[in-house]
Amino acid sequence: MGPRPGPGEALCALSDLADPGARGFVFGGEGARFSGFIVRRGGVVRGYVDACPHVGAPLALTRDGFLTRDGDLIICATHGALFRLQDGLCVAGPCVNRTLQPWPVQVRDGKIWTA
User: Which domains are assigned to the chain?
Assistant: First the structure.
């Protein structure tokens, strides 16, 4: 997975993340990197490692393209797997009943932080 940021790293302002919305983050460089993303729906923000449980590939083809058109599910652009925002559970596609790996984040003082 590479250099996962430790607790207390500011990711962005809550107001910079659409509702519903998603944003991807990459830490580290060549060879040693960590990719994660955050999703927001209502007042809830969750973080996940950017790796599909089916083959480990990144979920999005674009930096922030993690959600379906209506913003109610996370989608894997490679195989079309669909995941619930609230817990990362796959509800359709080749990895049904498997989950995305959580990336702990929290909202504090109007910003989203690693936890």
Answer: 10-114 (2.102.10.10)
| Cα separation, 51 vs 55, whole angstroms | 8
Find out whether 75 and 81 touch, Cβ atoms under 8 Å.
yes
Residue 68, number of CB atoms within 10 A of its CB: 12
Q: Give the model confidence (pLDDT) of 33-66 as tens digits.
A: 899 999 999 889 999 999 999 988 999 988 899 9
CA distance 52 to 99: 9
| Lateral strand order in the sheet of 73-75 | 73-75, 82-84, 90-92
11: region left, alpha or beta (phi > 0 left; psi from -120 to 50 alpha): alpha
In this predicted model, what pLDDT tens digit does every residue of 69-108 receive, in sequence order? 999 999 999 999 999 999 999 999 999 999 999 999 999 9
Question: Which residues, other chains included, contact 92 with Cβ-Cβ below 8 Å and sequence gap of 6+?
Answer: 80, 81, 82
